Amino acid sequence: MIFDLAFVGFGTVGRGLADLLLEKKEELRKKYGMEYRVVAISDIRVGSILDYRGIDLREALRLAEAGTSLERLPAQEKGLSAIEIVRESPSNAIVEVTWTNIVDGEPGYSHIKTALSLGKHVVTTNKGPISLYYRELMRLADEKNVRLKFKGTVLSGTPAFNLFDGALAGCSVSSIRGIVNSTSNYILTEMEKGLDYEDALKEAQRLGYAEADPTMDVEGGDAAAKITILSNVLLGANIRPDMVKRKGISSITAEEVLGAKKRGERIKLIAGAEKRGGAIKAEVSPVPVPVSDPLANIMGVTNALTFETDCLGNFTVVGPGAGRRATGYALLTDLISIAKG
Model-level pTM? Predict the structure, then answer.
């Protein structure tokens, strides 16, 4: 399959995919029959270009890394808005990697809906539209006979949804619980070493694990969006992030963390969902987890999910939940999945 790709967003995640596309170009062609051209890039910081002949991705990546406008490159159109790139580019697949908004899903929702309406495949890491409009967008993709893939919305490149499309096809999931927010897990790990919450947060910000405004992470908003997506996809739920009971870690003290450790437990921000009769209960909350539980031993910025299934009982997947290469890899595996048909 030949992809004519349009990037909507070309920050850390988009560039992570670009790295892998360049690095694995021959492998993708030989192993999966997948070839690509990049025909458009739109980014709020480095500008917007469209070229039917194809854009030099290596040079675009070099300019973006230097903070230089992509509009220095030769192109047939420059300065188009993101939605114009979706509509007007000669793309058959959109890479939507703009910022997450779990209030109304914009601007990602409009980008994705427009692309699907035009018969274009979409791969995205944007939790907003998927957590809010999953069923609507999947129906639209089905109607237009295209694919909407969003593996990177949860656990980055670590397998989650795609397990049940392949190796675990036929397994039914009855509950999900896990550590899905790297920032909170890092802070709790540092507090176990004796830091108080504020100092641990400052260290997370210094290392780039936490945003200047960490509210989405430390108050559980990010985890709530992720457990919403997991619930809707794997448990057959129809919920939104604001329906998830939520408590963050900002009120947790070092004394509580160290006290739990003395009792043979670790406090973890756990996102969980389970089927109860015909209903789904989903919650995000810091809870003490016995050290015998695999989730108790997930430290730093690592993430993990434990699935309860009818065929295999409980099993846990562990891996990176963030990062340029890991999240770029999630997008790459989604493109490979589409190429394999």
Answer: 0.95
